[in-house]
Protein backbone atom coordinates (compact mmCIF):
# COMPACT_ATOMS: atom_id res chain seq x y z
CA UNK A 1 0.00 0.00 0.00
CA UNK A 2 1.35 3.41 -0.97
CA UNK A 3 1.16 6.22 1.60
CA UNK A 4 -0.15 9.55 0.31
CA UNK A 5 1.81 12.76 1.01
CA UNK A 6 -0.55 14.13 3.65
CA UNK A 7 -0.56 10.88 5.60
CA UNK A 8 3.22 10.74 5.36
CA UNK A 9 3.56 14.31 6.66
CA UNK A 10 1.23 13.51 9.58
CA UNK A 11 3.26 10.40 10.39
CA UNK A 12 6.54 12.34 10.29
CA UNK A 13 5.03 15.06 12.50
CA UNK A 14 4.03 12.40 15.02
CA UNK A 15 7.52 10.87 14.90
CA UNK A 16 8.93 14.35 15.50
CA UNK A 17 7.04 14.78 18.75
CA UNK A 18 7.27 11.25 20.15
CA UNK A 19 11.02 10.83 20.32
CA UNK A 20 11.53 9.71 23.89
CA UNK A 21 13.92 12.56 24.69
CA UNK A 22 12.04 15.72 25.66
CA UNK A 23 14.67 18.06 24.21
CA UNK A 24 14.37 16.36 20.82
CA UNK A 25 10.57 16.41 21.02
CA UNK A 26 10.67 20.19 21.46
CA UNK A 27 13.23 20.84 18.72
CA UNK A 28 11.75 18.50 16.13
CA UNK A 29 8.08 19.34 16.62
CA UNK A 30 8.94 23.03 16.22
CA UNK A 31 10.85 22.19 13.05
CA UNK A 32 8.12 19.94 11.66
CA UNK A 33 5.46 22.59 12.30
CA UNK A 34 7.55 25.17 10.47
CA UNK A 35 8.76 23.08 7.55
CA UNK A 36 6.89 19.84 6.83
CA UNK A 37 4.04 21.42 4.87
CA UNK A 38 6.44 22.89 2.32
CA UNK A 39 8.70 19.86 1.86
CA UNK A 40 8.89 18.05 -1.46
CA UNK A 41 9.32 14.26 -1.63
CA UNK A 42 13.12 14.43 -1.58
CA UNK A 43 13.09 16.65 1.52
CA UNK A 44 10.60 14.31 3.20
CA UNK A 45 12.94 11.40 2.44
CA UNK A 46 15.86 13.28 3.98
CA UNK A 47 13.86 14.24 7.07
CA UNK A 48 12.58 10.70 7.51
CA UNK A 49 16.15 9.38 7.35
CA UNK A 50 17.18 11.87 10.03
CA UNK A 51 14.29 10.75 12.25
CA UNK A 52 15.71 7.23 12.05
CA UNK A 53 18.81 8.34 13.92
CA UNK A 54 19.39 7.93 17.65
CA UNK A 55 18.15 10.82 19.82
CA UNK A 56 21.46 11.21 21.64
CA UNK A 57 23.30 11.56 18.33
CA UNK A 58 20.70 13.97 16.97
CA UNK A 59 20.91 16.13 20.07
CA UNK A 60 24.70 16.31 19.87
CA UNK A 61 24.56 17.24 16.19
CA UNK A 62 21.87 19.89 16.62
CA UNK A 63 23.47 21.36 19.75
CA UNK A 64 26.86 21.48 18.03
CA UNK A 65 28.56 19.10 20.45
CA UNK A 66 29.55 16.88 17.52
CA UNK A 67 29.46 17.45 13.77
CA UNK A 68 26.59 15.84 11.89
CA UNK A 69 27.41 13.31 9.19
CA UNK A 70 27.57 14.82 5.72
CA UNK A 71 24.24 13.22 4.74
CA UNK A 72 22.46 15.14 7.51
CA UNK A 73 24.56 18.32 7.73
CA UNK A 74 22.29 20.65 5.73
CA UNK A 75 19.14 19.47 7.50
CA UNK A 76 20.76 19.78 10.93
CA UNK A 77 21.74 23.36 10.07
CA UNK A 78 18.15 24.08 9.01
CA UNK A 79 16.84 22.64 12.29
CA UNK A 80 19.30 24.83 14.22
CA UNK A 81 18.06 27.92 12.37
CA UNK A 82 14.43 27.14 13.16
CA UNK A 83 15.32 26.40 16.81
CA UNK A 84 17.08 29.74 17.09
CA UNK A 85 14.14 31.57 15.56
CA UNK A 86 16.08 32.50 12.42
CA UNK A 87 14.39 30.05 10.09
UniProtKB/TrEMBL annotation:
Keywords of the record, alphabetical order, are: Chaperone
| UniProt-listed InterPro entries | SDH, SDH_sf
State the SUPFAM superfamilies in the record: YgfY-like (SSF109910)
List, alphabetically, the Gene3D superfamilies matched. Flavinator of succinate dehydrogenase
UniProt entry tagged with the keyword Metal-binding: no
Recorded hits in PANTHER family, A to Z, give: PROTEIN EMI5 HOMOLOG, MITOCHONDRIAL, SUCCINATE DEHYDROGENASE ASSEMBLY FACTOR 2, MITOCHONDRIAL
Q: Which family does it belong to?
A: Belongs to the SdhE FAD assembly factor family.
This chain's protein is named: FAD assembly factor SdhE
Q: Name the source organism.
A: Tropicibacter oceani
